[in-house]
Amino acid sequence: MTRSTEIVRVLAEELTRLPPGTRVASEAEVGQRFGVGRAAARAALAELERRMLVSRIQGQGTFTRRRVDYLVAPGRAPSWSRTLRAVGAEPRAVVLACDEVPLPDDVAAALETAPGTAGFRLVRRSFIDGMPAAWGVEWLAAALVPELPAALRHEESLDTILRQSARVVPERAWTRASMESVPDDASAGLGCRPGDPAWLIASLARDGVGGRPLLSTERWVRADAVRVVLELGEA
């Protein structure tokens, strides 16, 4: 067993006992503790990051992380916050923009409305247990919830707003999930480097009663924060 491997073993065992969001020792601190050079300490921390036991947040440092399951399954409400709370996580969303703009042609087609229809482009950064976890863009017709900007100041769950204001029952029409390289605009929200691998989850929600499309979403999710779990049939 190499010295670096031994350091990883010791630190991995210790880190699993710490709460999520605990700051991890720096390269210099690891090197001093184990009596190794900066290169060996850096390699050990990189291996812990590769195993998704810690998360490196750009400009802040490296922290312990608890990955949570994000379940995509028939009959499940397409609610980010509700899905995460169901597995014991504490989600929080920050609105970065909520602009009324004409819907782009591809979004209008997905929402089955005319191109150029007034819509809301909602950009949000999401946290899980206080740590950056997701960044996404959501589109919906402005007529569905005309008061959306004001509503978001009092309720951060878009699923709840749709149920209460638009009197609809959101459900998944379809979902696509793939592992992709994070683009520049999403990397800042995720607290990672451009090009890092992350989940790209695109989805369309419809009204479970009337069937009309409600919401088009494209969300980037840190792979070290979330395990995307797909249930496609009955167990």
Automatic annotation (TrEMBL):
Keywords: DNA-binding, Transcription, Transcription regulation. One of its GO terms (biological process) is negative regulation of DNA-templated transcription. The keyword DNA-binding applies. Residues 1-67 form the HTH gntR-type domain. InterPro entries: Bact_HTH_transcr_reg, Chorismate_lyase_/UTRA_dom_sf, Tscrpt_reg_HTH_GntR, UTRA, WH-like_DNA-bd_sf, WH_DNA-bd_sf. PANTHER family: GNTR-FAMILY TRANSCRIPTIONAL REGULATOR, MANNOSYL-D-GLYCERATE TRANSPORT/METABOLISM SYSTEM REPRESSOR MNGR-RELATED. This is GntR family transcriptional regulator. It comes from Cellulosimicrobium protaetiae. The lineage of its organism: Bacteria, Bacillati, Actinomycetota, Actinomycetes, Micrococcales.
